[in-house]
Amino acid sequence: MEEEYPPPSPGVQPVELRDCIEELLKFTLISSIQGKIQTGLSNEYCADLLRDDPSNPLYTVADVSEGVPSYPLYKRLALSLYQSISSGVLCAYKELIPAHEEPNLRKKVEEWDKMVAEKGSALLSLIREVNFDLHVQEPFFSLLSDGLKTIEGRCAVGDYKRIQAGHILLVNKCLTLQVQDVRQYSSFREMLEVENLSNILPGVTSIEEGVRIYRNFYSEEKERSNGVLAIYVRTPTSQLRVIAASILSGLGCGGVQKLLGFAETVGSNPELLPPAPSTLLSTFLSPRNPDVKGSILTNGARALAKHVNRSSEGYWGLSHGSDEEKNRHAVEIICCLLAKCSWMNMHIVRPHGIVFEIRNDGGYGARWSVDGSKFIGFLEPYAIDGYSKGWRH
């Protein structure tokens, strides 16, 4: 006997934006790549925001105020966007280094604030109209979003029986549908025989096949005991992903980078996205002398040895003992910086070109090449005369 996986009873009001924003942003980026909606972002850029990194060895950050963003980046972006909508202003970074902002940067930020406040209010208004929240599996979710599937069949149980014409359904936390009509049948077979099969299960060629699909979710006994609902739906003009796309279009790459927690200074490149934490850690842990047999000292541990005597506060700790112990200490330092940094930048630093740089609240930090493929070194807190003092402080 097949195991039964009935769809859960639909969620009811109130539906909260914070519970939807992540799936909505993901849906919007995918729709942009598919050419179904315009975000003003390239397909490659959208794909980079969606790219996962299962090998991330560090953490999952639930706070947009610190830490290098974990992949997929859209999750950090969604959280930051929600907090910005809630507060009315874009999440800001800490100014640890004099920014020397361009004259138009502040104006640009003010425009972003205004746009996010207006579009965010529109998102909240649409969310408040939702009566029921339900989940639809693929491929039928995509068929619903494309308007090819116009009837959703469900067993008449729980809150499904409360759904009526005029109600707004939120499907998979990202797609809104308006109910046109609800018709009741004694069984899925009867529903499939009376209604147009292609409107209920597009691509399914026979009623027998359709009944088998529903049997994966509902037992025959449950179906006969409760009956079946044919829920007619249409896609309303106002859509969450349309508003989300307009927010992304208004932000552009620079606004997205700011929501990810980046500073913008002279020499910053707002078109770039940060490397994955696993890439940063991997290059940090690469051997200093790979061609020397038995040498295990890492690039990171070697770089740390240059800094242990520069901080009078003893921030870097002591680098002593065996190479294995030095490596372990260096990993502790870099993992703390990756998890707790409050300032990030993708900017030009001579002679390295564009670098990825992070710093914590105290100004201590680290620097990699722009793609994270090379660890450049650790950083002391910024000081105007830092170079002349050998960065000792």
UniProtKB/TrEMBL annotation:
Limits of the ASCH domain: 134-237
Regions annotated as coiled coil: none
Top-level lineage group: Eukaryota
SMART domains recorded: ASCH
Protein name per its UniProtKB record: ASCH domain-containing protein
Database matches in InterPro entries: ASCH_domain, PUA-like_sf
Classification via Pfam families: ASCH (PF04266)
